[in-house]
Amino acid sequence: MIKKEIDPETANQIKKELAELRAQLDSQKKQKKKAAKPKVEKPKKKAAKPKVEKPKKKAAKPKVEKPKKKAAKPKVEKPKKKVAKPKVEKPKKPTKAEIAQARKDAKAAKEKAEADAKAAKEAAERTPEDDLEEQFSDEQIRNFTIEKMDMDRLTNKVCEIIADFEENGMLQSDLWKKLKLNSRDGSRLALRLERRGLISREKILQKGRWTYKLIIEQAPIKLESLIDAPCLTCTVEQKCDVENAYPAPSPLHCQLIEDWVTIEFSKKKK
């Protein structure tokens, strides 16, 4: 057999027709299946059971208050831990040079403090006589004279008055009043006698003011003290000598002189 060739248009038309036929067959099959199944009625729901009332709950028992818990004990705060001490750095050991310098500075500071204290003390204890003493030289003080006065006689008189007070001395202000001298002349006279070694001056605090007390150093010789001296009527006075050895006459081991001194001393005490 000889196969006939089909043109493309015819082939396409045949394919369309076959597709339509297939679609019709499928729809018929579906309709037949639906017609074949009988309708099955669903069973009706069971009648609802009558509600049975549940028995009421028993009356609630009255609440019994539970005893309150015991009051909680107050919390005792535990002592706080000690604060850690800050670390103190150990000082470095000073060098020998630093130690030497420190000693030198300390010595200088001590000397300065002592000098300041001494200066302050001197300033507090300063008297008008101190100022007067600085105004005159030693020569002016030694040659000091008071107009219309015999300075030798005045010197002896001052020494006699001061000697009566012995080692206790007397205030220079009292002496000037007794001699009717002003404080300027009296102070210069006291300085003159001190320079000659006849008296000494001692600074004292009197009624809140600094002044001087005059003390005799060399008592003047009085003629009255020689009246009863055994040497004036001694028969061996010409042979008497301090270099003589006993039993040769000497004032160092003379019983007459010893008795005379004892009597005069007891008179002075009375």
The topology string of helices and strands comes to: HHHHHEHHEEH
Helix count, per DSSP?
Answer: 8
CATH architecture of the domain at 128-216: Orthogonal Bundle
What structural class results from the helix and strand content? mainly alpha
Radius of gyration: 73 Å
How far do the termini sit from each other?
206 Å
Number of strands: 3
**Strand count, sense and closure of the main sheet?**
3 strands, antiparallel
Strand fraction: 5-15%
CATH topology of the domain at 128-216: Arc Repressor Mutant, subunit A
Average pLDDT, all residues: 78
Reading off the top of the CATH hierarchy, the class of the domain at 128-216 is best stated as Mainly Alpha
Query: Can you tell me the overall shape?
Result: rod-shaped
Order of adjacent strands in the largest pleated sheet: 1-3-2
Poorly predicted runs: none
Helical fraction: 40-55%
Mind explaining what this structure looks like?
- The protein is mainly alpha-helical and 270 residues long.
- It is built from eight helices and three strands; from the N terminus they run H-H-H-H-H-E-H-H-E-E-H.
- Among the domains are: 128-216, Arc Repressor Mutant, subunit A, CATH 1.10.10; 223-269, no CATH class.
- The chain has helices spanning 8-36, 96-124, 128-135, 138-142, 151-163, 172-179, 183-195, 255-269, and strands at 170-171, 199-206, 209-216.
- A three-stranded antiparallel beta sheet has the order 1-3-2.
- A hairpin with a 2-residue loop joins strand 2 and strand 3 (209-216).
- Helix 6 (172-179) packs across helix 7.
- It starts with 7 loop residues before the first helix and ends with a helix.
- 7% of the residues are buried.
